[in-house]
Amino acid sequence: MNYIKKLIPFALPYKKYAYLNIFFNVLYALFSTLSFIALIPVFKVIFSDQRVTSDKPDWKGWLGLKDYGEEYLNYFIVDSIEKYGDFKVLMMMVGVIISMFLLKNISNYLAMYFITFLRNGVLKDIRNKLYNKIVSLPLAFYSEKTKGDTISRVSADVNEVRNSFLAILEMIVREPLTILFSLITMLVLSLKLTLFVLIFIPISGLIISRIGKSLKKGSLKVQKEQGVFLSVLEETMGGLRIIKAFNVEKMFGRKFEDSNNRYYKHSNKLLNRQNLASPLSELLGIIVIGVLLVYGGYLVFVDKTMDASFFVGYITLAYNILTPAKAIAKASYKVKRGDGAANRILEFIETENTIVEIENPIEKDTFENEVLLNNVSFKYEDQYVLKDFNLKIPKGKSIALVGQSGSGKSTIANLVTRFYDVNKGSIFIDGENIKNLSKKSLRGLTGLVNQDSILFNDTIANNLKIGKEDATEEEIIEALKVANAWEFVKDLPQGINTNIGDSGGKISGGQKQRINIARAVLKNPPIMILDEATSALDTESERVVQDALENMMKNRTSIVIAHRLSTIQNADVIVVMQKGEIAEQGTHTELIAKNGVYNKLVEMQSFE
Fold this sequence. Notes:
Strand content: 5-15%
Radius of gyration: 37 Å
Shape: elongated
CATH superfamily of the largest domain: ABC transporter type 1, transmembrane domain
CATH class of the largest domain: Mainly Alpha
Oligomer: single chain
Number of helices: 22
Largest sheet: 6 strands, mixed
Helix content: 55-70%
Number of strands: 10
Distance between the termini: 53 Å
Number of domains: 2
CATH architecture of the largest domain: Up-down Bundle
């Protein structure tokens, strides 16, 4: 239940709805009790042979409230029947009862009406918080987490918390007040009978709480397993082409079924325990009702210390306690279930972001001199992939990084854009440590074209506007021309407003990469990073994309991570990397003349 304190800030913007909900819940509990009290006069009319004629009683203080109420009610009914007759008085009493039930249900509706805004508001804000956390956490975090688990937290876990959060509000306001008002009335009607009810409530609560202790653990298993099968589903959707090509549908089907079966078993255990709440509380309640009927019957028929109409009214009030008692039992089970989901959400929200800005970061929007990597060392896990690495990238120059896979080329791109932080050393832009720059301004200075063309299920125009949100149609077309993409975009059914499908699936690989380049062109950053931008393309597509890259890199500082020789021959400096260190560097001609590592890579055409 500790999570409730941490979720309260999400509810504060909607506190007026909480107050209105509490107000109408109080009215609900009051009218609920009054609606059953109103039955007593009806029973008085029905049991007409038990009426005793009396004069109007005198008020003798609060200690004589019960006797005064009984005498006044008897006087009122006898007097009314003498004036209007039995049937008319009965109709009046029924009208009062209907009015009480009407007010009770109106209050119930209004309480639920206002809680809807609080419940869905909290849900909305938690999801927004989770999404903002998703996009703010560093890439390193997602190398250890599955996408399905993250999606499960944003969807299923949030819904579970919403349900438990609502259950808490009902549990601490409406149902307890209904029980309290009923008990107060029952105490007035009969102290002896009420002692049985007061004994029943704590015993019932103890039994139900013992059963509910395992729900938190069970709920956590359910939520985690849901994350697992969502991950399998997400991987299946993303890799459907490979799954079909290798005929492994059954293998992935078994993987999903295994997870789904575990989810099935965990859910059954959890729900079966939760389903105990209602029948158990009802059974305990009816046992007490039975005892009350026996003892109350003794007071009416043998001891003759209690009026029959009051006894029937008392029993209806006692039974009125059962419904809120069952609701409290169900709510406590929901709270236990929500505990596991809430902890998973809060664990994610409270995850520390390792890529942090200084208190007052520098906002830099121009690039004047150079990018400098000074004694940079970096490791993803235990082994360093860069060791005391030094590199100067002057403004306007094109620097190519080549080497075998695992030599640390792409790591440099990740460090310059600060997707990861260096373990040792520093990276400077115009003499300013990039850790002192705001992440927004740092990434505003850089543009990125990856090997994998990351496009979104939207129009070409909206994909390009990621580079410049307020770009005009003319600017978009110009960027497409620079990227050699306009030649095919202009022939599409709706031109730049054509939707390209999930991950750009409606266009070819070469076309996707040219859209990718056009997006970087539209952003127009002073520093461009090309991470093996043509390695996934066929020869013909590569030639077109390479022309687009050369157009883009004119008079621009660029870091080119190369796989193929064709992309780096014209670079100002080629840096050959081996195991996180610089093996040699120079122009293409100089390195060929050295007949060293670079020359061997050229001969093998194995640029990683």
